[in-house]
Specification:
Structural class: mainly alpha
Helix content: 55-70%
Number of helices: 19
Number of strands: 2
Keywords: Acyltransferase, Transferase
Distance between the termini: 43 Å
Protein name: Lysophospholipid acyltransferase 1 isoform X6
Order of helices and strands: HHHHHHHHHHEEHHHHHHHHH
Organism: Castor canadensis (American beaver)
């Protein structure tokens, strides 16, 4: 992480401040994820007791250190060295050894579903579908993104003339227009891995083969998210999984705050990243408090539930637009200008909610809610 941060700093001095460029730091960010993921999985396998591991940590723990060839192949394979996504070492080795698909089928007890032999699912359909998504994302980028650039948020009309409601709507449109480039890159990276035969995740409840083991986003769930948590869980999924693996489940205190800080450090040193992730902390806590205190009142009927879903969808989309705007603006000056024009409304509302609404306490012991030891203890009880 220290070396990655030094590289991020050098990028600002080599390139122009406030302009996002594609360079060596992108692949280095992916390599950093893989190195730290593998390190913790080796640590779980060789340095910790089995009963202290969560079920997921136990599944991914490595009892034998990888060879130099395995290590280099995992970090630098052509499928993910440019744009990722990060994946688990066990899954990668199973893919290289030709066991990947059969291993996933056995995990869902394929033979117990009245099938006597393991099939050989083809990724062709999944690859074609994802290529269509990348094409659509590219077209949106060339039209929508060009029509509503993020620089619109610092125009005189937006800052000085538009009313507050117009600013809310325009901010939402501009932030929607900034998404296609991410949809394009992540979906294409996923399709590349699938085309090589990697990324099979098993069988869904309808018996269809799934190729989303390495998917970095779920566009439908992102656009229909009714909570900040749901949005984050479906955006940059593999990075969220990495943050959970190396930070959230392991730190003894303030897991949400420290996870957001680690995410900011990993992304780089542009001030906009820190505005986004530090804003995300109170927004996440406030959203959790509102959900814990009020959601149960809207579950008594379908009509009330529909009203709740629509209201939380609108609130979530506006909150994400406000929070993520500095991430794409990068620099301090346009970020402060934007937030001043919006009266820092979400910061103020979030802080008021945190101060006046009780947040249900969550037990946090090493962020391992269900270890193998606890599971066995429950069975004995």
């Amino acid at each position: 992480m220290g070396y990655l941060t030094i590289c991020h700093i050098s990028r600002i001095y080599i390139f122009h401040y406030g302009i996002l460029t594609t360079d060596f730091s992108g692949p280095l960010m992916i390599v950093t994820q893989k190195i730290t993921t593998l390190a913790f999985q080796v640590h779980d396998g060789l340095g910790r007791r089995t009963e202290d591991l969560s079920a997921e940590q136990h599944r991914l723990a490595l009892k034998v250190k990888p060879s130099f060839l395995e290590y280099s192949s995992y970090l630098l394979n052509f499928m993910s060295v440019i744009a990722g996504p990060c994946n688990n070492f066990k899954d990668y080795v199973a893919f290289i050894e030709g066991r990947h698909i059969h291993m996933k089928l056995l995990e869902v007890n394929w033979k117990q579903k009245d099938f006597h032999s393991l099939p050989d699912p083809s990724p062709t359909g999944a690859v074609i579908h994802k290529l269509y998504v990348t094409l659509g994302s590219l077209l949106l980028f060339l039209t929508l993104t060009k029509s509503f650039p993020v620089t619109c948020l610092v125009d005189d009309w937006f800052v000085h003339e538009a009313n507050f409601l117009a600013r809310l709507c325009y901010l939402y449109v501009v932030m929607q227009a900034s998404k296609p480039k991410y949809y394009f890159a992540w979906t294409l990276a996923d399709a590349v891995n699938n085309a090589a035969g990697f990324g099979f995740s098993g069988v869904d409840k309808n018996g269809n083969f799934c190729w989303d083991l390495l998917s970095n986003l779920n566009i439908w769930k992102i656009e229909t998210a009714t909570s900040f948590k749901m949005y984050l869980e479906n955006w940059n999924i593999q990075t969220s999984t990495w943050l959970k693996c190396v930070c959230y489940e392991r730190v003894p205190w303030y897991p949400t705050v420290l996870t957001f800080i680690l995410s900011a450090l990993w992304h780089g040193v542009y001030p906009g990243y820190y505005f986004t992730f530090l804003t995300g902390v109170p927004v996440t806590l406030a959203a959790r408090a509102v959900r814990n205190n009020y959601r149960r009142y809207f579950l008594s009927s379908k009509a009330l539930k529909a009203v709740y879903d629509v209201a939380t969808w609108a609130a979530t989309q506006l909150a994400v637009s406000y929070t993520a705007a500095p991430f794409v603006m990068l620099a301090v000056e346009p970020t402060i200008s934007l937030y001043k024009s919006m009266y820092f409304y979400l910061h103020i509302v979030s802080l008021l909610i945190i101060l006046y609404l009780p947040i249900k306490p969550q037990t946090h012991i090493q962020r391992q809610p269900q270890t193998l030891n606890s599971v066995n203890k429950k069975k004995m009880d």
